């Protein structure tokens, strides 16, 4: 068994007994390791900044971490999250699904304690510290239908909002793909479609959620616009977040597939919009150039586009997410 698999086995056990500790002597048999290997595992986990702490001869977690058994415990889906994959470190969960698209089933979910090459929309970097974020990617292989799959970003955002509400956390959506709490970004969505010629082979939904990050874990250049659930509401269990998200997503997704009605999840996006009714700068990205105009945000239409009225011409326009960013007077929002 390689070291990463042993690390995950150790973390699964420590997560199961959290907040209690276990002796090093007992962990030797639990992880099927000798003392030298176990001490190496612990040393590497601590050096990777996983929330593992050693006090004399006992080991425990500072807060819960991702664990497949714990996720499965709260899972109530018929297809999503089957199978589940959890990696200690991976370049990108989205890229893992892309590279294994032909062999993985629809509903496959890939998670990682840490991503080394995480990215967001428009290729922006996404911070993914070890053990203190949820980094996951969901694979969908929908049957041939006339549905507008660009709406999956909004459906995902709605499912995240509903998931956070279960934890008494009121979240807002900054169109098209950012989730905010106390007006700061707490989660992001990256939707990617994979085609073979004109045939849709799969849709990959990449989701990052800042769970148990401390404020000083957030890159200094974005601390004014990003936060974590721990900073807002205290330590959270990432496993219940993952299972609840899959449960909520499947309900919304299945209803959409059956009825072709996007109103239920778009209404969630409208009702929890961080933008509607406000005035913001609209930045249109044109390669190396961009334009910037002030507009009032009117609504989100039935195809997921943002409806705005430009203040310089009073022209009403609908914006698609690909080429636009929304900014406040002093930056992010």
UniProtKB/TrEMBL annotation:
<dbReference type="GO" id="GO:0016740">
    <property type="term" value="F:transferase activity"/>
</dbReference>
<dbReference type="GO" id="GO:0009249">
    <property type="term" value="P:protein lipoylation"/>
</dbReference>
<dbReference type="InterPro" id="IPR004143">
    <property type="entry name" value="BPL_LPL_catalytic"/>
</dbReference>
<dbReference type="GO" id="GO:0005737">
    <property type="term" value="C:cytoplasm"/>
</dbReference>
<dbReference type="InterPro" id="IPR004408">
    <property type="entry name" value="Biotin_CoA_COase_ligase"/>
</dbReference>
<dbReference type="InterPro" id="IPR045864">
    <property type="entry name" value="aa-tRNA-synth_II/BPL/LPL"/>
</dbReference>
<dbReference type="Pfam" id="PF03099">
    <property type="entry name" value="BPL_LplA_LipB"/>
</dbReference>
<protein>
    <submittedName>
        <fullName>Biotin--[acetyl-CoA-carboxylase] ligase</fullName>
        <ecNumber>6.3.4.15</ecNumber>
    </submittedName>
</protein>
<feature type="domain" description="BPL/LPL catalytic">
    <location>
        <begin position="69"/>
        <end position="257"/>
    </location>
</feature>
<keyword id="KW-0436">Ligase</keyword>
<dbReference type="GO" id="GO:0004077">
    <property type="term" value="F:biotin--[biotin carboxyl-carrier protein] ligase activity"/>
</dbReference>
